[in-house]
Inverse folding.
């Protein structure tokens, strides 16, 4: 706890190493079926929850210094923006980091952002998640 | 199939979904989000929930399918955002809808059988 108390900076500014992910066809079709999308229509846009958010949020959740209590965690907001949608079979790389971490009256709000790029380094997707951790 | 046939007219695209445990479990497996609040009633109750709840990202995924239908296809989706405002439990029926509000913008809604919005501030931008 910082001297600022209620407005402690937490782990804002922390970034995690890049994670590479192969977009496998079986995973894409099971994801598409689960959300009611056409499994033959390519990578569903919100598969970004897997290749972008999922790969990097796992690093945050397993970081002991970030101290995210998984049992008290709620996903409060999500935004994705896409430069393009990746293709089935493509390999993408994601870099995640905490851009805000604010605690107020027992509620901690962590903003976690991820940049996903393709094999040539070109932008694919930006993810911004707001996680709320109840005390 | 848990999905009713989508219907479309010139103004709105929508889809009504009654959530089931097996759909939530299928999403957990496919997405890799295996948090037991989505799979295990006893665990969910132990952390103050009424029982298992659907992933917010499952709701957003269905919303994106509807937005893509309204916006001319999934590849045209450029931005999607929402707030997870309410819990969805197995047996709940949610109507997801998308309506063009400007040339490249869709206003999105997800409302349960009680008339409560489960997703709020839901907006998509599509390729012009």
């Amino acid at each position: 706890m910082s001297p600022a108390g209620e407005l402690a900076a937490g782990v804002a500014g922390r970034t995690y190493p890049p994670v590479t992910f192969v977009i496998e066809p079986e995973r894409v079709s099971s994801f598409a079926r689960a959300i009611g999308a056409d499994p033959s229509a390519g990578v569903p846009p919100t598969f970004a929850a897997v290749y972008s958010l999922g790969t990097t949020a796992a690093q945050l959740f397993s970081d002991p210094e970030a101290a995210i209590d998984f049992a008290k965690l709620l996903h409060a907001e999500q935004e994705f923006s896409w430069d393009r949608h990746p293709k089935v079979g493509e390999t993408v790389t994601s870099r995640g980091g905490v851009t805000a971490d604010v605690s107020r009256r027992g509620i901690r709000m962590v903003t976690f952002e991820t940049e996903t790029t393709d094999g040539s380094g070109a932008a694919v997707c930006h993810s911004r998640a707001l996680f709320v951790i109840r005390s | 199939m848990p999905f009713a046939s989508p219907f479309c007219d010139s103004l709105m695209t929508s889809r009504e979904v009654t959530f089931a445990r097996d759909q939530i479990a299928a999403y957990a497996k496919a997405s890799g989000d295996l948090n037991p609040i989505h799979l295990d009633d006893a665990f969910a109750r132990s952390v103050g929930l009424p029982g298992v709840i659907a992933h917010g990202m499952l709701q957003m995924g269905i919303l994106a399918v509807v937005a893509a239908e309204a916006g001319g296809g999934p590849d045209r989706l450029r931005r999607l955002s929402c707030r997870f405002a309410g819990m969805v439990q197995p047996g709940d029926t949610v109507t997801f809808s998308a309506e063009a509000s400007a040339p490249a913008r869709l206003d999105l809604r997800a409302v349960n059988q009680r008339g409560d919005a489960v997703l709020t501030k839901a907006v998509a931008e599509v390729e012009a």
Summary: Residues 7-126 of chain B form a domain with the Thiol Ester Dehydrase; Chain A fold (CATH 3.10.129.10). Chain B touches chain A through 37 residues (CB under 8 Å).
